[in-house]
Amino acid sequence: MLVYDYLLQSANKYPEKPVVFHGNKSLTYHELSSLVRSQASWLISQKFDAGFRCGILTDDPFEYISAYFAIQLAGGIVVGLNTQTSERSLKTLLTDSRISVVFAQKKFHRYLAPFASQLPSLKLIVSDEEFSCNGATSIWMDRQVILKTDLQITDFPVVKPDDIAQIIYTSGTTGSPKGVMLRHANLVANTSSIITYLKLTENDKVMAVLPFFYSYGNSVLLTHIAVGGSLVVNQNFLYPNVILDEMLEREVTGFSGVPSTFALLLNRSAINKYHFPKLRYLTQAGAAMSPKLAGQLQKVFPEAEIFVMYGQTEASARLSYLPPEDLERKMGSIGRAIPGVTLKLLDRDGRSVADGETGEIVAVGDNIMAGYWERRPETDQVLREEGLWTGDLARRDHEGYFYIVSRKSDMIKSGSHRIAPKEIEEIIHEHEAVHEVAVLGVEDEILGETIKACVVLKPGVTCLPKELLLHCRRNLPAFKVPHRIVFFDELPKTATGKIIKRQLMADG
Amino acid sequence: MNQTISKIRSFIFENFLFDADESALGNNDSFLEQGIIDSTGILELVDWLEETFTIKVLDEELIPENLDSVTKLADFIGKKSC
Fold it and tell me: Which has the closest alpha carbon to A119: A142, A141, A135, A139?
């Protein structure tokens, strides 16, 4: 079984059924598979090497999903690119993955144009509208021409379950992003497990608000296509009331979010005035659910079952889930391993810890990644004999339910993003006025955490927070720009010179 | 009205567009379509509206028809201030 088989099988079974709704448009399984075949045929005609990397940079779900399956059908590796980006971030990712082609929407051309012709690996930009780089358009391939051309290719490349299907970039603790390599077999194993515990069927229709380029959104996409279900896509969470209207109008049966999604819905929308009789499940990943949030959600969605889930991109998405019937009894837990996964709790030396004691979660299963793209040392650090060392410290109760205690990394979780403080620190440090900087997450009711930068300026230099924000804005995607910049005379440090971030957090 | 529009534009440029020139935002441009404001930004915008114009934005009023461009915001403030 390969990832694209899900689409081909569902298209065969439910050709006339709508698979994706977006705005007032929709696409049937048959229409989607036609788009996939024409784009895959064109990619094959370009004769790229097997396992070529192909980026997708679009917020149009029809374009994203059709390109996603086309790339894999053509024997390529999907690299879903974050649409909240900057020229610098994009250049880093495209260079690192040595990408051959990017499917890019017009609105993102401005990020690619300054450097596209300088990347030796990058051969083509596929777009509905002309892409120009230093006045030249030779790198542009018109997507509409691809869709209209029938290349009659029947000889598709042989792809094996152990081949890499997708690379998902995650924030690395060192500051530079790491590409998580997921095999077809990894994604298939995880998809099948999620379908089992969520009891998904072809009658399910999910409200997809999470971006597909992250692993959570990717799993929502694959699971619903695998069962022949439908996705109602609106990934702009700017106006939650619009999402609620769509949920009602399209009679969605499922909704997947992170804690900030639910916080926004509960605090910044008219959700109490709505009733969703068709909604049968809610999923939350990214953190355990607080008793307060669980109570509020159960009140506004009385018919829906609430699944709290835990996972990592390195595990294709999911590692554990808390069954809805245990939500109240095991409040604060991330549940137990999903089908096909074994979770262990080990101490630093790889020895099992007893129930009630704290250890690191180590996972074994067919969903575990192949490794980080061209990063052997980092791969060896987390993929060891015992399994995937998650970096998450937890305890387990006598019934086998896990509770996260803390994380080993100081990654900031803001909205649906995981952000490495180091990356922001490096950018701020590049500013000529800055002597020293520490970036950290500060608790926030809606976002989970907001980003605070604590800055020490060079002696005798003056600089306004606005100037540093402008510098960040020019070099970082919007979601990584600090919400607050605070100046200090000096930063608190340990005897060995390490900045004590905990103390800076206490300062608010 | 012109004064309100000018205040809104200043806020948007100062907080979301930074060093962009005036032509980067038309008064009828959609914040959503242009990707100018994200979900955090809209919360900041609402807090600013409530504080600056001493109005209360109700949950059901958080819709694009009221908030999604400079002109829509100015109209909304006008209606709320009556």
Answer: A139
Does A185-337+391-407 match A412-506 in CATH topology?
A: no
The CATH number of domain A412-506 is 1.20.1540.10: no
User: Does the domain spanning A185-337+391-407 belong to CATH 3.30.300.30?
Assistant: no
Reported as a single tens digit per residue, the pLDDT across A325-358 is 999 899 989 999 999 999 999 999 999 999 999 9
**Chosen from A239, A264, A444, A485 to mutate, greatest number of chain B CBs within 10 A:** A239
Give the architecture (CATH level 2) of B2-81: Orthogonal Bundle (1.10)
DSSP per-residue letters across A379-420: HHHHEETTEEEEEEEEEE-TTS-EEEEEESS--EEETTEEE-
Give per-residue pLDDT as tens, A197-213: 999 999 999 999 999 99
Nearest by Cα to A162 from A180, A177, A184, A143: A184
Domain ranges in chain B are 2-81
C-beta of residue A253 within 8 angstroms of C-beta of residue A205: yes
Residues A128-155, mean pLDDT to the nearest whole number: 86
To test the contact with chain A by mutation, choose from B16, B39, B46 the residue with the greatest count of A C-beta atoms within 10 A, namely B39
pLDDT attached to residue A174: 62
The residue type at A475:
N
Instruction: Tell me the shortest Cα–Cα distance from A42 to chain B, in angstroms.
Output: 30
Structure tokens at A28: 């049937």
Residue A100 in tokens = 């051959």
C-alpha neighbours within 13 Å on the C-beta side of residue A344: 16
Torsion over CA: A389, A390, A395, A401 (sign): negative
Query: What's residue A5's pLDDT?
Result: 97
CB A190 within 8 A of CB A219: yes
Of residues A166, A145, A163, the one with CA closest to residue A42: A145
- Picking from A198, A259, A257, the residue whose alpha carbon sits closest to that of residue A229 is A198
| Helical segments of B1-82, H only | 2-12, 31-34, 39-52, 64-67, 70-81
Domain ranges of chain A: 3-159, 185-337+391-407, 412-506
Number of cross-chain residue pairs from A and B with Cβ atoms under 8 Å apart: 58
Q: What six digits make up the tokens of B76?
A: 């909304």
Contact A241, A231 (CB under 8 A): no
SS3 A433: coil
